[in-house]
Design brief:
This protein is of the alpha+beta class and about 150 residues long. It is built from 4 helices and 6 strands, in the order ααββαββββα. It has helices at about 15-20, 25-40, 80-90, 140-150, and strands at about 45-50, 70-75, 95-100, 110-115, 120-125, 135. The protein has a 6-stranded mixed sheet. A hairpin with a 6-residue loop joins strand 5 (about 120-125) and strand 6 (about 135). The chain is globular, with a radius of gyration of 15 Å.
């Protein structure tokens, strides 16, 4: 399978010592394997809006565990891509936690958080303007995404 994601897309900054200590490169390569089938099925580019956050040690984004990513379709003018990406995230057996970020102050286009923190697949929706998550069902997750992006059509 084609690799759609370059290592540099997963981080903004950081030093080599941090990456070695937390085995970040191998964890990023595991994320590439998780994301490539999703990207291929979507048929359009995906932007990683947040990956490794060395400066945020209490976050999954610090990659001390398996890591976390915030993603969205690159083409933010196509609501159908957000809905399709949500469907693909639900179908992806390789993911454990998926959170929908509605359009708001912190996410002007909306997006998704994905990580491996849970032992089974769980879904969340974030508050529009604060990092407060609420656990929801798979059906509610798809409903929130569909409602958000049908309103923007």
């Amino acid at each position: 399978m084609k690799n759609y994601f370059h290592l540099s897309e997963f981080f903004d900054r950081g030093d080599a010592k941090y990456f070695r200590e937390h085995d970040v490169q191998n964890k990023i390569m595991a994320w590439q394997k998780r994301l490539n089938p999703i990207r291929e099925a979507l048929g359009e580019p995906i932007t990683i809006t947040s990956g490794v956050r060395e400066y945020d040690p209490n976050s999954e984004h610090a990659f001390k565990g398996e890591g976390a990513l915030d993603i969205r379709p690159t083409d933010t003018g196509r609501p159908d891509l957000f809905i399709r990406l949500a469907e693909l995230l639900v179908q992806a057996q390789s993911l454990r936690r998926v959170c929908f970020y509605p359009i708001g102050k912190n996410f002007p286009h909306g997006g998704f958080h994905i990580d491996m923190r849970s032992h089974k697949k769980v879904y969340y929706v974030s508050d529009r303007d604060a990092p407060e998550w609420s656990k929801i069902t798979e059906e509610a997750f798809l409903f929130y995404v569909t409602e958000q992006y049908n309103q923007t059509n």
